[in-house]
Structure of 5,6-dimethylbenzimidazole synthase:
Amino acid sequence: MDVYQAIATRRDVRAEFTGQVVDDATLMKLLQAAHRAPSVGNSQPWDFVVIREPGMLDDFAAHVALQRQRFADSLPEGRRNTFDPIKIEGIRESGTGVVVTYDHGRGGPHILGRHTISDAGLFSAVLAIQNLWLAAVTEGIGVGWVSFYEEQFLAELIDAPAHIRPIAWLCVGPVREFAERPDLERFGWRTGRPLEDAVHWGRYRA
Amino acid sequence: MDVYQAIATRRDVRAEFTGQVVDDATLMKLLQAAHRAPSVGNSQPWDFVVIREPGMLDDFAAHVALQRQRFADSLPEGRRNTFDPIKIEGIRESGTGVVVTYDHGRGGPHILGRHTISDAGLFSAVLAIQNLWLAAVTEGIGVGWVSFYEEQFLAELIDAPAHIRPIAWLCVGPVREFAERPDLERFGWRTGRPLEDAVHWGRYRA
């Protein structure tokens, strides 16, 4: 699939998972795409933890449900009504969770390109996620990035050592379709802004 | 171009810029690709500042040269010798700098999906960079991510308000070719690890 087509049809999938589980060969293609991401100083500070054990999916889903409720409770009433119908996860339905983790110590003390920007390594791990996401679209596989969790909970769930930071839970699985419009637009949560508002020439807001 | 082909041929370009300047129509295609990235709560917290003014390119290049020297000075001798021949920028040669910025306040106080993970918005802006990068490969345009700078310097260079964080300077321009092997491998700085080392099943290092 063409890069622009993948970028345009990519969706954050929550409700469209078929319930089938992605086969290992396809999953490895997606992880290989992620692993080909650029990284600061070629440090490749990411890891991918694949989770399919029903008990672990259930534990994480229950934790996310709790965080969802806490977020709902934090909203003013009008926003809460808008939020209520929005599905925020697909942990069990996708059948596969991929936890992406970040290791700040990977590559030793002298990371080329991270001398002044400590977050540069973290950014590398995020780039890997977008590679995976676009490759997934090519395969008809949906990805939903769940961020309604406490990092400590997820770190313990996957038995991560103290220096390993989980940065994403990705629900990965076959989908019936990619929705034409993003969920958050369809449900009236927030619409995007035009590109022109995001582009500045020469200086910020110049 | 196919997604996998773009992912495989993408390089962090430093030395291969032709010296031609990317035309505006192509640049806008790349920025549109970036702008189609997923974002937490559809907050689209990114902005893109396009810099072509020679004086600004020179100022930034001089700042980066200084940081390069500081990094070299921080290295033990063996590593310094490995680092010396590696080109770390192409600020003037690319002819176009795209500074990607992050606005933590974009979208108001209730960002869906950022309730527990403060960095989730920052991650969104990074995803946009990978979209741009892959679209650029499709167009025969190179991207080099320069991270040898102090954020405060870059913020002042682009007149960013205090709440706007510059997260990347991307050198964007036509290239002669995409190198077969990444520079950091060719120059012996650091080679990648196999995918198998990055994939864990069920639990981290399980």
In short: Chain A has a mean pLDDT of 97. The two ends of chain A are 37 Å apart (CA to CA). Residues 33 and 132 of chain A are 6 Å apart (CA to CA).
